[in-house]
Amino acid sequence: MSNRLKDVLSGYEDNYILPFFWQHGEDEAVLREEMARIHEAKIRAVCVEARPHPDFLGPKWWEDMDIILEEARARGMRVWILDDDHFPTGHAAGRLKDAPKELRRLYLSVEHVDAVGPRKNSSFMVAPVPYVPGYFETGGGDISAVIAVKRDPITGNLTEQIEDVTSKVENGKLYWDVPEGYWRIFTIIENDKGGDPKRKDYLNPLVKQSVRVLLDTIHEAFYDRYRDDFGKTIAGFFSDEPGFYNDEESFDYQSKLGKKGVTLLWSAELDQLLEGEFGSDYKKYLPFLWHDGGEMMAKIRYSYMNLVSKLYAENFTKQIGDWCREHNVEYIGHIVEDNNIHTRLGSAAGHFFRALEGQDMSGLDVVLWQLNPGFDEIPSKSFSGEADNEFYNYGLGKMATSLAHLDPKKKGRTMAEVFGAYGWVEGLKLMKWMTDHMLVRGVNYFVPHAFSPKEYPDFDCPPHFYARGKNPQYRYYKYLNEYTNRLSHLLSGGTHVATAAVLYHAEAEWSGEAMYFQKPVKELMRNQIDCDVLPCDAIVGGIEIENNKLISHGETFDCLVIPYSEALPASVLKQFAQFAKQGLPIYFIDGLPQRSCEGELISEELAFFAANENVEVIPLEDLAEIMKNNGFYDIQVKNNQPYLRYYHVQHQEMDVYMLFNEHPIQKVETELELSGTGKVVFYDAYQNIIMDAKAQVKGEKSLVSINLAPFETVVVIVGTDFAEIEISTDLKKLKTEKLVEGPWVLSTAKAEQYPDFTSWGQLESLTDISRVKGLTSFSGTMKYETEFYWKEENQRVAIDLGDVYETAEVFVNGISQGVRISTPYRFELNDLQKGKNTLVVEVTNTLVKENPDMLSRIAQHEPSGLLGPVTILVER
Q1: Is the pLDDT of residue 609 over 60?
Q2: What pTM value is reported for the model?
């Protein structure tokens, strides 16, 4: 039997959960209690966040950290530290406010004036607008260059006829004999004022010495005080949403080159690198970073994005990661990925894979209703505007886990910050769905958001798991965490199995028209074909072709899929040609590239692609069918199941397949076909039991019936050695015997009152409690009591509660039969007696009924209580 399966069945799995623990400067007793509640919830790590603390790095801060670490040592817990005084990381606790100019943020901006010629002895005001507090906040700065670009007389577009007229500037005025035609005169300005005004005192992530201020201020301070804990109780540091923040609109997800008026992050090193690529006169091309033009526009935009994303990776993430590893701790976190900004400027860092390369885990976050069950295609409202649900459902998770598979130092680990800022409408049911959504894409570490020791109601991004004892679902939170740890453990440490590699689209988007990588990923996932996403950097390094397959860091892919790209780097296109010569099937979706990003000629490669039998140009909608026809799949299911997700990990002794019905309403009933004929069992990670899958052998295949309720997960395990394991019978084999109709005696208890209930009265039939007079705003536990008679003995019996909102615990004759936090609400009844039996069902809703907070306003609210029908099931 696999060691990992033995671990979870014996309760010895590792910890994969490290929730945010917000600090406000609470009393010692409150901090100790909150640490106890975190540990009680079956969590063995925390990530301490200073954002709301009034004295970060001051005496009160260190006093509070001493308490947290003392509690962690006593409880065998580990501590991660969010690496700044508030998010996004980069403020360095305010140390850059009065730092020397070379350490502060530097921006490039542009102004322009139009001219017509021929006109001699013309002059133009090109000096930067003066800085005037309250009026011209981004004024001032130094002239970097003045560039005149001729315009098309019909369209007004910029042409390739350019003159650098910087030498003709005197005392802020350009004196120039304007040639014939229409001209646009650009003033390129270097300035330390620009970008997001909220981030004006932030470090410059392009400058190594600037990032070092963060390390010297925060990381070194922790090391000086707690060096003996580094690598032991202190696990590492967490960066939260660092990025460029060069745009005045912090979270404009369309912030990219070509946006008028935006400032661009700059540095002396970037200046030198661009000069190295384009020559000493490179500045004449800088206007194209803001204004559209011809061939040079594409070249300079690609070059700028390529260089700033590499500088960010080298000087920010890698420098911090190297420091952490040198000090025996790890470095984790995430950038802003929302609505495809991960390839852009603004709050992002230009390139997802580069931005996180220096960290020890891959990372992402899903907060503020970025995930909404049932919305996987059409947009839905979120607090970041209209959510691009194709990206959140088919792009984000796969992108992050692909990096974990690609980078050896990440050891297959992907961290997701989850649950935060959904409002009190979010309960354990939605949390479990979100957890499964992440697990089935390969995420295996979780940062739940958040434990807040502030007195309820804390309006800062609820829900909060304990809420000073006011969250009625807290006592059941441990069930979700045990489930999460078991599945994370079981899905970690092996080799991910997938059949397709899909190209990441960053370089293509920088250079022209481009298809998002999630478009082909969606087609594959909805057809149970798994994949990884590979960036161009991986294509040109670290990949081999063996037996017509692509090998990347221990993973094997049958083919390479290229989303439509007008342009790609020349080195990448040449590598594609080499792959095809070695026999790798390559699918270009909707067309071949037309040019290279750098302007290098690629006519030879394009001719090769058009003629080689291993290269096909195919429509997006045909991708899944073509792959299936070529045998490029891992599993098959009977009939179309677009909401059945799966994830396959191969361990030495067994294959583990996680299957998840992602739809909130529809069931999944199908037959699963697996390669091989080993013993097949189901693993229920919630109940931590193994069940016989009743697999049928058909040639070299095993066929397994799959029946999943909405939100339900099952793990299929194929192995050879299950002799030591107790095999249970699936409750789904039981049949309906009778309906439990009541009447029901109802009583209620709020979180702080439980288990002392207040009698309400009798319900003749089950109904939505939030529609019952006097209970419309009730949040807490609703207890339903009734009696029923049973005449059989020694018979396997279960109960199905039907619709429940949302956490349920069942008692028979005063003995708990278990807890369910999501569908199906089915319990085996082990304490029935012949004759009369008492049945008690306790249903706990969320705090949204009493606290309809702002974050819950965009959600679809569910009813409260037990709606049924309640049925008794028996084995026949």
Answers
A1: yes
A2: 0.96
